[in-house]
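hi support,

uploading two proteins for the ticket. first:
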Amino acid sequence: MRIQSYKHDGKIHRVWSETTILKGTDHVVIGGNNRTLVTESDGRKWVTREPAIVYFHKDFWFNVICMFRDDGVYYYCNLSSPYACDDEAIKYIDYDLDIKVYPDGKYHLLDEDEYKVHRSKMNYPESIDAILKYNVDELQQWIEHKKGPFAPDFIKVWHHRFNNEH
């Protein structure tokens, strides 16, 4: 399955060529990929360097990429619309803000300047701004309380399952 991220104005932002779906329910999609071709909106292409588990939830305005590196698990969290799925891909709107979580549990909110520029340029409504602020707080709570994809058992189970499928 492909993953396609868009910007608020409907333009394609980034495409991951292939992700193995490990679990799909009405509310959650968990996938895995490794050495996957990624195409940027400007046509630039690159290949992911490490295995990753991706986590999407219908009820939250974020998705999480768990990357397995030699020194531990890093998380890259995109503030985004809830995902939609069709025959073509898993799709979402990327709203610029990201949270990077390090193996020691420390985390940083990234790209606030990019968010401000795009919010103005693409006219994000106040309702979207409020939803995103709420979801930044929600995501930080998940990180701090090791909930969802940040739980140690989540990582063990899904990394093991992905390895067994490849």
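and the second one:
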Amino acid sequence: MELNQGKRYRIGVVAASLLTLTLAGCSDSSSDADDAAGGQASSTPQATTQEPAQATAERPSDAGGATQGGDGSQITLDALTASDIDEANLSGELGCQFSTERASPLLVAMGNVDSSSAAQGVVKVAGYVERVSAPGGFDGMTDNPTFEGKGKTLSIEVTGEPSEGGESPARPATLTYDRADGAQRTLEGEWQCGP
């Protein structure tokens, strides 16, 4: 009789284990991936865990239009740091910069007044600082300049009047970045020129 009770106990344990395995196989497969990766199942829904990844993937210049055309890769402009600008060693009497609400500045250029020399500038593309230039010195970049650099053209179009007064007011503008492979991206922001 004791042997039969022991067999029943073992059969019950095996049945309970099989039931647990069956139920685990029917559950959300994302918990299996979590178990394999970290040893514990996540109790948060999958959608919640994806939201932070999307937010952290966004770069400062990602506000604005998406990249159109080209090889399908994104045009990503990063904000220039003070160190980036200092290391560029731009020369000129006066300068201009393009900024968005999320990134300031994205393009910085310097030039001399009444000069036939090109204005020199920098832009940070996917983490790399690259040089660009526009004809006509400072005067050539105050209204709707076009900057060119290796494999890229950046056009600034002033779209309105300044919202504030002063010697160097910022004006609403768009920056259109054209890449050599035919890709294009337009960002809304402000163009500001002066001392």
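thanks. also noticed: The two ends are 100 Å apart (CA to CA).
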